[in-house]
Write a structure and sequence with these properties.
The longest helix has 48 residues, at 230-277. Helix 5 packs antiparallel against helix 9 (230-277), helix 6 packs antiparallel against helix 9 (230-277) and helix 20 runs parallel beside helix 22 (545-557). This protein is of the alpha/beta class and 817 residues long. The strands form eleven sheets. Strands 24-25-23-22-27-30-31 form a seven-stranded mixed sheet, sandwiched between helices. Strands 7-10-15-1-16 form a five-stranded parallel sheet. Strands 3-2-6 form a three-stranded antiparallel sheet.
Length: 817
């Protein structure tokens, strides 16, 4: 009633806000087509322990206390996580902006600057403004008249000093008969020649020597001395040229220092403003290297200015940053401004790229500008929720996550390419995110056993309950949650009969009449489809039980092709099966077929043939490779039952073959072991079994009947097989007594049982089933060496096995004479 009053108040508010009924319907439809509605933590039923564990994991700040939420698919794992995060956020450090800038000294190690939330954008924008200003200010400062005059004076003084070194030596060498040629460009060694008396021009030394040898020139004493000392003079000239070049180099460096000093002077005011606006030590240290890099790259600014002058077609306000200047820009790697605090990210594909980060295509940009953040850096101070199976299947991502958790640092590593031959390794980021992995219980156990580091990463296990007790309180809580979610998602309100039908469906999903399956997503799917069907019904404002039943029927019909084909094979007698009369050595076992979203059952004939031999009980399915281990175990237990009952005073000289007739798929499980044992006992005792019964149950070696799974599907499958030919009032299903609490049958089956047109009978022992199907007393004996009561089925089996033993002995004894 409280929910109805709240719904009525909400409806009135909606009508007041939107008087047009078409607009209200549009809003409802929009809500129905949108994402699943949020479920509050207090609306989750039966998960108190899971909630307690999840909240404990979220509130623990110690490293490694990441969370693994374990439960079957569809159990509401993600719903639980979302609800918990909406109410209990982890006390992790506050979200911060992360900015990568160039490392001018080590390009492969971009520098990380951590700024308060919201300051990253401003820092990037302010630094862009600085670079844009320097783009124009530095060339202007380097081309103004005063600076150009200083540079020209420095160059002239340098060139004069360099030329003087060579010219002073040339004067000395001229007195010794050597002539030094003009100083070449770049101050390489000038030519050195000899002044020969009587010759109008200086001659090369090779020419002088040749003409002396040929007698064309007279080798005077002075000339011969000059020839002897030529190498020494040339060495002195080369040394002087080297000194001149050194002076020129020093002058060039002085010009560069002067230009770098001027560029830094222009930039210093801008960087001081940045340092004042962002007063952290890492920012200050990086700005110092920024100034150094500006001074070292003066030519870059001059080249860009020259390029700008040559490009007369574009207007300055339309130009973008030249890619060459991206080296001085900042990359906002993590922008925490638009994210809630603390951030919560759901990573559907937890690859290394998506979890840690990536390096985008080059496009001519420096590496630090190409870095893109993954979920873990973006969720600093928050939570990342991942699919556990996808995470563990990506070895690179899983190993990186382990390293990050154990070391406390996130590292984004990328290959630098073959041309550079190095790896890009940006400065790491502090690991400040809580990881929640959602997976199955089996996956958790597997990872715990196979990976020794797994337990150091996921120290908190949250186990979801599959079902809860069917108490009045839990029924009320689940019904209230369904009402709230229906209202919040814009669905029509389910009435009491519809809620009762949904709760009954929950119990049916649990396969227990005293439990409720916590498959909230399944119930919500049914409710949403029932809402669509209710729109076409006579009471368009309410979802009724008939709408829920129709929705369930339609959901089953969408997947029941295989089930219908199996029933058709029975109807056509393609599969040999009898549901009335009696047969020796034949029983109707109930087999479940799992077809993805749908499981159904149909009876299958089990036959047994016995004879003298030594092989014992032979499982035909196992011989041909169509038997699972659990099924073969059931057949082996059958052999144990025969040994205990009939092989205490004689050898068991038996070969019995047990077969699932017309079965060509692998048989799993041991739930048919009761039917197989009944068939063997029937064959040994020559006692017909009633074919009007379907049989399910497993046995232990003491002949006790044990519970099996899918008992409702098995009963309904045999009911459908009998219904095709018409119920005769004698048909039914034998189930283990322990399965009585699991009965949640279809309404038509319940009606047939109530009208005594169909029967469900429970048994505790093999002997009870034998008496029911054979119409004979099973018979018990006081001790293993006393006979079974005359006329009992066990006595007939014992006599048959005794005859087998005698036949085996007789044929094994050599004939006399």
């Amino acid at each position: 009633q409280q929910e109805e009053r709240a719904a009525s108040a909400e409806q009135k508010a909606l009508e007041a806000a939107h008087p047009d009924p078409r607009e209200r319907e549009r809003l409802r439809e929009h809500a129905r087509l949108g994402a699943r509605p949020h479920v509050a933590l207090e609306e989750i039923v039966g998960q108190e322990r899971a909630i307690e564990a999840l909240v404990a994991g979220l509130s623990t700040e110690a490293p490694g206390f990441h969370i693994f939420v374990a439960g079957p698919a569809g159990s509401g794992r993600e719903t639980l996580v979302r609800a918990a995060l909406a109410k209990h956020l982890p006390p992790l450090p506050r979200a911060r902006d992360r900015v990568y800038v160039a490392n001018f000294r080590r390009p492969d190690r971009p520098r990380l600057l951590t700024l308060p939330r919201g300051k990253g954008r401003r820092f990037v924008r302010d630094l862009d403004d600085v670079v844009a200003a320097l783009w124009r200010s530095i060339p202007a400062a380097l081309t103004n008249d005063a600076h150009v005059a200083r540079v020209e004076r420095l160059k002239a003084r340098t060139e004069k000093e360099a030329a003087a070194v060579v010219e002073d030596l040339a004067a000395e060498l001229r007195a010794e008969g050597y002539i030094v040629g003009p100083i070449p460009e770049g101050y390489s060694t000038p030519r050195l020649r000899l002044q020969v008396p009587g010759e109008p021009k200086p001659l090369p030394v090779q020419t002088v020597r040749r003409r002396i040898e040929e007698g064309e020139l007279k080798g005077t004493r002075r000339l011969r001395r000059a020839l002897r000392r030529y190498d020494e003079a040339l060495a002195r000239l080369e040394d002087a040229a080297g000194k001149a070049r050194a002076i020129v180099r020093q002058g060039t460096l002085a010009v560069r220092r002067l230009q770098a000093q001027e560029a830094r002077a222009v930039a210093r005011g801008f960087t001081d403003d940045i340092a004042h606006a962002y007063p952290t030590e890492p920012v200050r240290r990086w700005l110092d290297t920024f100034l150094e890099a500006i001074g070292r790259r003066v030519e870059l600014f001059l080249e860009l200015s020259q390029r700008e002058e040559e490009d007369e077609e574009s207007a300055p306000q339309q130009r973008r940053f030249p890619k060459e200047l991206a080296l001085f820009r900042a990359n906002l790697f993590v922008d925490a401004f638009d994210r809630k605090v603390p951030p919560v990210l759901f990573e559907a594909n937890p690859s290394y790229r998506n979890m840690f980060g990536s390096l985008d295509g080059s496009d001519g940009l420096p590496d630090h500008m190409r870095l893109r953040a993954g979920s873990l850096p973006q969720a600093g101070g928050g939570v990342v929720v991942v699919d556990a199976a996808a995470l563990f299947n990506d070895a690179t991502a899983w190993n990186a996550l382990k390293r990050s958790v154990l070391s406390g640092w996130l590292e984004v590593q990328h290959s630098g390419g073959a041309s550079r031959g190095t790896s890009l390794r940006p400065e790491p980021i502090r690991m400040a995110a809580k990881v929640i992995a959602i997976g199955s219980e089996e996956l958790y156990q597997q990872m715990f056993a196979e990976d020794p580091d797994f337990a150091q990463v996921f120290k908190v296990l949250v186990q979801l309950e599959g079902s809860v007790a069917r108490t009045k309180r839990n029924l009320h809580l689940l019904a209230r949650a369904l009402l709230r979610v229906a209202r919040r998602s814009g669905l029509r309100s389910p009435d009491a009969s519809a809620l009762a039908r949904l709760l009954e469906h929950s119990a049916r999903l649990a396969c227990r009449n005293d439990r409720l399956q916590l498959a909230f997503s399944e119930l919500l799917d049914v409710l949403q489809e029932a809402d669509r069907l209710a729109a076409a019904g006579p009471r368009k404002g309410t979802i009724r039980a008939v709408d829920v039943d129709d929705a369930l029927a339609r959901r089953r019909r969408r997947h029941d092709l295989s089930e219908r084909e199996a029933q058709q094979a029975l109807d056509d007698r393609s599969v040999l099966l009898e549901v009335e009369g009696e047969r020796v050595g034949v029983a109707n076992a109930l087999v479940v077929y799992d077809e993805g979203p749908l499981s159904y059952s149909r009876p299958t004939r089990v036959s047994a043939v016995v004879g003298v031999g030594s092989q014992g009980v032979v499982d035909v399915e196992q011989v041909v490779g169509l038997s699972g281990d659990a099924h073969h175990k059931g057949v082996t237990i059958l052999a144990g039952i025969l040994r205990e009952r009939f092989a205490q005073d004689k050898p068991l000289c038996l070969t019995a073959t047990v077969c699932f007739e017309q079965s060509y798929e692998t048989v799993e499980g041991d739930s048919a072991s009761l039917a197989e044992t009944l068939a063997v006992f029937s064959a040994l005792g020559d006692a017909p079994l009633s074919q009007a019964w379907g049989i399910t149950g497993s046995l232990n070696q003491k002949g006790e009947v044990q519970v099996v799974g899918d008992v409702n599907a098995k009963i309904e499958g045999f009911f459908d097989a009998c219904l095709a030919g018409g119920l005769n009032g004698h048909q039914g299903v034998i189930i283990p007594e322990g399965n009585l609490r699991d009965l949640m049958l279809r309404p038509d089956v319940v009606r047939a049982v109530a009208q005594r047109r169909f029967h469900v009978v429970s048994v505790r022992t093999l002997d009870e089933a034998l008496e029911l199907l054979c119409g004979l007393p099973a018979g018990t004996r006081p001790s293993p060496f006393e006979p079974y009561p005359e006329g009992s089925l066990n006595a007939r089996v014992d006599r048959r096995l005794a005859s087998f033993a005698e036949a085996a002995r007789r044929f094994a004894t050599p004939a006399a004479g």
